[in-house]
Amino acid sequence: MLKNIIKGLEQSSTLKINEISAELEDKGKKIFRFGFGQSPFQIPNDIVEALKDNAYQNKYLPIQGLKELRETVAKFASIKKGYSYKSKNVIIGPGSKELMFLLHVLFDGEIILPVPSWVSYAPQAIIGRNKIQAIQTKRENNWFPTGTEIEEIILKDKNKNYLLFLNSPNNPSGQVCKNLEEISEITKKHNLIILSDEIYSELSFEKGFKSISSFCPEKTIISTGLSKWCGAGGWRLGYFIIPDSLNILRDSINVLASETFSAVSAPIQYAAITAYKSDHSEYIDRSKNILKAVGNYVYENLKSNKVLINKPQGGFYLMPEFLNKKFNTSAEMCDNILKETGVALLPGSDFGFDKKKMLARLSFTDFDGQKFMMQIKNKQEIDKSLILKFAPKIVEGVDKLKKWSTST
Ligand SMILES: Cc1ncc(COP(=O)(O)O)c(C=O)c1O
To answer: Is the N-terminal amide bond of 169 cis, ω within 30° of 0?
Structure first.
């Protein structure tokens, strides 16, 4: 009774690893949850209070989103990106993932996916029945595509429409894209649209994060939301910012939204106004200070002549490569790591890599972020003793992983 296109798909691996980890924990095994990535921090209090104050909001809101929220987001984004966005450019969705899904459904063309790519882009493209053009990126280029690699695909058939997914800071590599200008040149030269997935942009460790929209705003859809910087993945609120030049896409998303989710939960939208209107820079700085220190700890303690890793530049992830010839696939390797050490990782093959490449995604969020945040001062230097105190499972899990990497 299933369509062929659906039969080939499995449940998203990031959500699945969470369930497997929970099952093993129920059986009494100590699991280091480095597979699933979600913010370890609690939602800022003023935003939680705003939700409580708006629990009574019971009316359906406009399809595109509450006007006041869209205005607030447009103002916030205009300052951050240095481009003038208006409320009409903003679409509020139940998570950015759903909006991306609708984009795949309506877009007619080819989807350019740099490998590694977040796990859901490819399945969504398949459901949307668009051909995927994968670009195998390299460690030397920070795991991002070069302009030439993108252009090579477009030159094969210039008459097609192309949609490039660019995710910086990146899940799974933890890297920030440095060659935005070069990519934007190709974008302007050819018939290319970019979906810039900036869900981790507030958690970029370096100052002055740059969006590709700063270089080619008319060609860029910005995709982001509350899930990562605000610790509110479960609230399911994301948004797209679509420039006037791509109005046709905005209008079609609104049509599809009206026939599917109708509008995002009203209390969540009212609460999100506080998220974008009030200043949360101290909360974000504290989050970044902790994430950067924990990420660097993992990087420093795991890298060796048996494990290659790039230093984390933002978000929650690292992508170690184990120089190991014992396993046939990265999935087999990750199963062995879980069995031998209790450390849950996701195999590189889930992100589009050849299954023979021994890459894995490691999420360094298995700690109580609230406790950590409450106990340290703003901008305090975080040394190993603090990481040991507030992120003991990170220390123990990395230690086990390191031992595993040297013994296999
Ligand atoms: C790269 C990336 N994009 C998008 C999302 C989805 O975010 P949302 O919660 O807004 O649907 C995630 C969540 O894991 C992600 O890692």
So the answer is: yes
pLDDT (tens digit per residue) in 234-275: 999 999 999 999 999 999 999 999 999 999 999 999 999 999
Q: What is the pTM of this model?
A: 0.96
Range list for CATH 3.40.640.10 in the chain: 45-277
Cα atoms found within 13 Å of the Cα of residue 192, Cβ hemisphere only:
27
Which of 16, 36, 97, 144, when mutated, tests ligand 1's pocket best, judged by the most ligand atoms within 8 Å of its CB?
97
Cβ of 172 less than 6 Å from ligand 1: no
Is ligand 1 within 6 A of the CB of residue 202?
A: no
**Is 3.90.1150.10 the CATH number for 4-43+281-407?**
yes
Region of 31 please: left (phi>0), alpha (psi -120 to 50) or beta: beta
Nearest to 274 by CA among 234, 230, 233, 209: 230
CATH code for the part of the protein at 45-277:
3.40.640.10
Which of 193, 178, 205 has its CA nearest to residue 240?
193
CA distances from 389 to 114, 297, 339, 392, 408 (A): 38, 13, 26, 6, 29
